[in-house]
Amino acid sequence: MKTIKFYALLGIVLVAMIFVGCSKDADDVVPDTTPVLSNTEKAGLLQMVEIEKLHHDVYLCMSENNQCEIFDELCSCDKNFMDQLSEKVDKYKLENPITERETGIYADPDIQAKYNEFLIISNGQLQDFLAFAKQIEEYGLASLTTRMAQVDGNEDIAEIYTDMKEQSQCQLESIVNKIDHQDTVRHPGNLPDDI
Fold first, then answer.
1. Domains along the chain?
2. Sequence-ordered list of residues with C-beta below 8 angstroms from that of 78, at least 6 positions apart, any chain
């Protein structure tokens, strides 16, 4: 009889240890603290990653077609932001619109239209490239300003947008500075100004 009581008591202790062990494992699970994005914030993130792809694609082409160092710098900076935004897209488990898209191909029709505008001047002169670079930086800044206003307390997204806006303003200033300091092209047939 004592043996039966001993085994019964041992069984109860083992069952209790199993339940304590299971409940401890449930307490060790780290809850997902990723903030939830609103539909507007999701749309903004997806738009901004495509805008950065647009900038990268255009500046890469400009860099290849023109011997102006500014396009290399712009391309590198926008590639960095494109990658950072893609990480956010992955983090929030969204479908990245730039994954496996070739250069010059976009999901957003407005962004596709901007790239198609670039194709018209893609064999142009440095002045044409700089003017278009200024135009797409202004477009990106306007989109970014709109999207920043739509962020509802998500510091993760607000922080990257703030960094992007600061960098984009610097990029725009560099482009404008380059435009302002372009020398007038003199052809052999041009008459001197003093004649």
1. 39-180 (1.20.1260.10)
2. 52, 55, 56, 59
